[in-house]
Amino acid sequence: MATSADGPAGGAAEPGDGPLGADERAELLALRKRLPARRRWRAALSALLITLAAVLAPLSAVAVWVADEMADTDRYVATVAPLARHPDVRAAVTDRVTDAAMAKLDLDSLLSGVAPSDRPGLEKALGTLRGPITGGIRDVVRQTVARFVASDAFATLWEQLNRQAHAAFTGALTGDSDTAVKVNGDAVVLDLAPVVTQVKQRLLAQGLSAASLIPEVRTDFTLVKSEDVRRARTGFRWLQITGNWLPVVTVVLAAVGVLLAARRRRALVAAALGIAAGAAVLGIGLVIFRIIYLDHLPAGTNEAAAGAIYDQIVRFLRVTVRMLIVLGIVVAAGAWLSGSGRWAERVTTAWETGIAAVRQAVGIRTTGPVGPWVHRYRLALRWVVVGGAGLALLLWPYPTGLVVVWIAVVAVAVLAVIEFLDDRRQPDVARVTSA
After folding, report:
1. What is the residue extent of each domain of the chain?
2. Which residues cross the membrane (predicted)?
């Protein structure tokens, strides 16, 4: 075929044919430079957003704990109620109430009703018996207190005190409290005056008339004592306000970071593992803070009771930490298995081959009209399963790590059913059968 300088078959030259001009070459070079710069910018922003999400994950858990645990009276009471039956807490309360009662029941108080003229002779006659008598009175008081603290009446009173004091407890770190729970210096304390009153009535019922000398007193039982209580007030208010929004911000940052990434599946794995790592850091921090907190307790404080109270108060926060760790691992594993990596493909192939073998073993060659329909919409069905699992987790009131595991197990089971109903391997099964 003849050609000419003007183009094929002597036709006119097409736009873009021939060598580039100087201006066009410069424009092309500029475009080539901008593309890598744009990719680097997107990658940097994606990494920054995913990192922020990982950093905010533990802070979000703390914010939810503050907002939900402190704002919901029933959850707060349900959290602290078991402390009334904890042996270390019972022992600490028994010691505190016994000391408060004995402050007014020493031997001098008992002798105050004796006539002044008879008192010197009586004290001389008692002599060395003063110590044993005082000790005996203390044993009676302590046994009475211990029996009451071990009763259902104390458990009920404990719940009533905490329920009535819930509003004050929410204001404890803000200093806005004047009821049973308050901030006393750097300590959050619970007034046990009603317990002393109950013990006084029981002592009187046992015939210890001297118990009438016990006045109505405010007896503080320390729940939390730390130099950081006052410093935490501003942070507490901020977490209380952002408790419902900070987790949403964290998820949005992670989602935007994944969408901006060039390799979104890999970015999703990184985001999920980053959030899990952030939650793990918070869990480790709770353990370390517990050790530091107990080491700095004032002298004479019941360390076992203080540790039990700390563990019970942060119980929901620890559950949240475990849930985030499990959720991050599950999401990362799911994203990795859906990729095209060598090991991911091996796992996927083993999954599909196994289900095909099950179909062949039970003699199911076709699932009728369902099979082609499932095959046609299999991707949509998979996304429905994933979305349903996410919705179930979102609507679950207070999910735990075990809840996440069971949701994942159910989702995998449903995906297995979809794979089982898919007829795309029917020709292969037929060939194996005919062979």
Report:
1. 86-229, 239-434
2. 43-67, 245-262, 269-293, 313-337, 379-396, 402-421
